[in-house]
Amino acid sequence: MKRHRWRTGLWAAALIVVLALAAIACSGDASDEGEVAGDPLAELTDEAKGCVECHATETPGIVADWDESPHAMEAVSCVDCHEVAPDSPLSIPDIEDHEDVGIAVATLVAPNTCAECHEDQVAEFNMSGHYRAALQIEPKAGLEALKTVHEGQNHPEFSRAPDTTGCVQCHGTRVEIENGRASADTYPSSGIGTIWPDESVGNCAVCHTRHAFEKAEARKPEACASCHLGPDHPDIEIYENSKHGQIYATEGEEWEWDSPTDEWEPGDYRAPTCATCHMSGIGDLTTTHNISERLYWNLWAPRSEVRNTPDPMSGLTGDGPAGRELMKTVCSECHSDDLADKFFETGDEAVQLYNEAYYDPAIAMKTDLAERGLLKENPWADEFQITYYYLWHHEGRRARQGSLMGGPDWAHWHGFFDLQQDIYKLQDIYNNRIETGEIES
Amino acid sequence: MVDRWKRLSKGQKLLATLAFAVLFLIAVVALPAAAWVIGTESISGTSDAEFCGGCHTMQPFTEANADNTHGGDNQWGIKAECVDCHLPHDNALNYLVSKVRRGTYDIWYQTFHDTSDIDWKAKDDDREEFLFDSGCLTCHDQLESATAGLPPHDNYFAGVTESKCVTCHNNVGHSNINKYLLEHKYRP
Fold first, then answer.
1. Which of B67, B87, B162, B184 to mutate: most A Cβ within 10 Å?
2. What's the half-sphere exposure (Cβ side, CA atoms, 13 Å) at A14?
3. Out of B94, B152, B155, whose CB is closest to A25?
4. Which of A204, A224, A245 delimits the end of a domain?
5. Quick one: fold of B53-186?
6. Are A92 and A106 in contact (CB under 8 A)?
7. Which end of chain A has fewer CB within 10 Å, C or N?
8. How far is the alpha carbon of A233 from chain B, nearest alpha carbon, in Å?
9. Which stretches does DSSP call E strand in A185-324?
10. Are residues A366 and A318 in the same domain?
């Protein structure tokens, strides 16, 4: 009997120990393994709740975007990005029906705000060619004349329209603010090089559109295509023309687009997009928002030169040889070194052919005619200058970019075929003007 | 018992006392010391990539880990061990219980299941279940003050989100995992 009681006690003690261990284990797990993403609204500050509650009715598109985003999951809300110092030029005073809002808010959000969390990404962007998008066209008198005098026809009221509806929408512009509101000449715009009142530059929402700000979106070629298209830099058309684009078009919607940064790798996709080659952390590379970093040439200037400066304000920003090695590292994830070497060998030949057989003779003729006073004052009414412009700005870029991004139709029919027509036309006009000593009528 | 003790001779008593002292020392000092040595050895010896990578299934992950900042691919060569991230660090008992529980499960699964058809990429969505903030914060113990003012971290430390560290920082442990999984699939 005594022995029996002793045994019962031992079992009871053992049970208590086991239960205690289980309880500790469960409580530990609970504290560490909670469910992900509850209802974020419940946790927002009163100010943020105020925004969301009204704007879900007033602008449901904005709130619906945000509601599904990682920002919402982390309780990063309207005020975290839209609150500004009361003396900020972007602060909008006296917004109708916002009398009860106790903080200064701005509609426009500059990349400096994004950089509060995404510091590296903004710093990389600031070293890239994108940084220059608006700053580089500001001082160009010839371009200004094209936009307002010629395209705008010097119209007393409407001459800015070609610029504001066209150039500004991709390049961006210097935002003009009055009473916290941007002028119609400068807003709305999704210009990547937007220049802000504090002189900071950029617009993250160009590729990661508001208010979802998705990584997956910027990985797709469509994010680049809204600007990199058309007769003068048909990059999306070149991509579609390429084998990479073919594979993307046929099965891209089944690919994995949400992989972690630096971990978006072959296997998630069968072909690269723009972002894969120019930005992604494929293989041992690290993701970069400096889209100039992996480039060898400048392929858009009148004459292509090898990139050679860290200055983002230069068209030659980057380090050409180092950039080429980085790009080959991208290629090597799927291709042999032999393939990559030969691809670049032929692409480089195309670029040098353009430089030496088309651009150099064209600029020599143009310089000679200018010295002899045989160019029209209005370049846009002068067949020689118009053809010269097409040669480098349209056809020359198509040939060069088509060659180095695997778009054969653009390299050839929209590129070198048009280039030989251009150069023969220029030679014809040049010879005629030299022989007659006057500009044809 | 007392009567029997009284009947013993002096020599026998001395011998018995000595024997008791030796047994007492073994029980109180030597055994716990041995247990401690064996215990700590077995705990630490089953914590690193060398041990975890002993199973074929885990090799892609230990290699992808070695390719990652947390696995030693950094300028200082600092290396976190598997358990530094994959076990809770809130208290010692929970750590041990979780270690035994998860370790036993892994051995059982490895022994009695085919692990070759696990969709590891899909498991990435469940990462919060296999990684522990208490582990992260054991090393990153100054994170709250060091990143004060950063809205997502402020919200995290204020407890207004239910996110875990790896909800956002989802690339911290293993690099190029697709490649290593593929390599091991076709390695003889």
1. B162
2. 6
3. B94
4. A204
5. Multiheme cytochrome fold (1.10.3820)
6. yes
7. C
8. 34
9. 308-309, 318-319
10. no
